[in-house]
Amino acid sequence: MRSTAQQQPFDLLERIEQRCLEAVRKVESGVQMVGRGSGLLAIRLRERLFTMPLAVIESIESVPTYTRVPGVQPWLLGIANLRGVVITVTDISAFLFGETRPRPASSRLIVAPHEGWQYGLLVDEIIGLRRFETAPLETYPEPDDTHLSRYVDQQRRVGGRVWLELNLHTVLQDQAFQNATLSNALNSD
Q1: How many helices (H) and strands (E) does the chain have?
Q2: Residue 118: which CATH number?
Q3: Which domain does 169 fall in, by range?
Q4: Cβ atoms of residues 94 and 101 within 8 Å
C-alpha cells in the first residue's frame, strides 16, 4: 500500500467517502435502535422537565443567528437559515408559559418537521435520552395553568422527579402557534 503522500487525490477521496458512509451507517443504526420503544428526548423548560419521542425530532442544533420578524408574538424570535433551509425560531418555553425570559447558556434548538415546514424550538436545556421502562404513564392533573395542559396529557414520576410528556404534534398544529402575528392575537379577543 502506498503512503498517503504517494496516493492519488481520487484514491484519498474514495477512502474518505467510505469512512463517512461507514460512520453514517453506525449513527443511523444507533438512532433507529434508540428510537424504538420508550426512547425519549428529555429537555428542561424553565424549572420543569419534559420528554418527547425521538420520532418527532429531526435534529438538535446550537442556537443559530436569527433575524427578528416585526409584528409577531414575543415567543416567535425570528427566522434563521439552517443549512440552506429557512426555519422559524420559537421560544417554546415562552409560548407554553406565556412570558419571555432571558435565554440560558445551555439553550439548544430542536428542529421538528411538520406538514412540510421546519420549526426550530428553543429549549432551555437538552438533558439527554431517557428510557422509562419501569415508570408508568399517569394522567397529567389539570394544573392552574390550563394553557400547558393543552399540550401535556401524561406524566411519569421517576426518582422524585415529574417528567411531563410534551405532545409536540399538538403544539405545532395549534392555531395559536400557527398564527403568531400580533394582529391575530388582538383580533381573537
Answers
A1: 6, 11
A2: 2.40.50.180
A3: 40-187
A4: yes
Residue-by-residue DSSP string for 5-58: GGS-HHHHHHHHHHHHHHHHHHHHHHHHHHHSTT-EEEEEETTEEEEEEGGG--
The pTM for the full model equals: 0.71
Rg of the chain over Cα atoms, rounded to whole angstroms, equals 20
pLDDT tens-digit series, residues 16-36: 777 766 765 654 444 433 333
Confidence of residue 116 (pLDDT cuts 50, 70, 90): confident
Q: Which residue has the cell 433507529?
A: 32
* C-alpha cell, 161: 422527579
Residue with the three cell numbers 477512502: 15
Closest among 159, 165, 178 to 53, alpha carbons compared = 165
Task: Name the residue type at position 81.
Answer: N
**Residue 89: band (very low, low, confident or very high) from pLDDT cuts 50, 70, 90:** very high
Q: How wide is the angle at C-alpha 185 spanned by C-alphas 111 and 174, nearest 5°? A: 40
Is residue 71 situated within a structural domain? yes
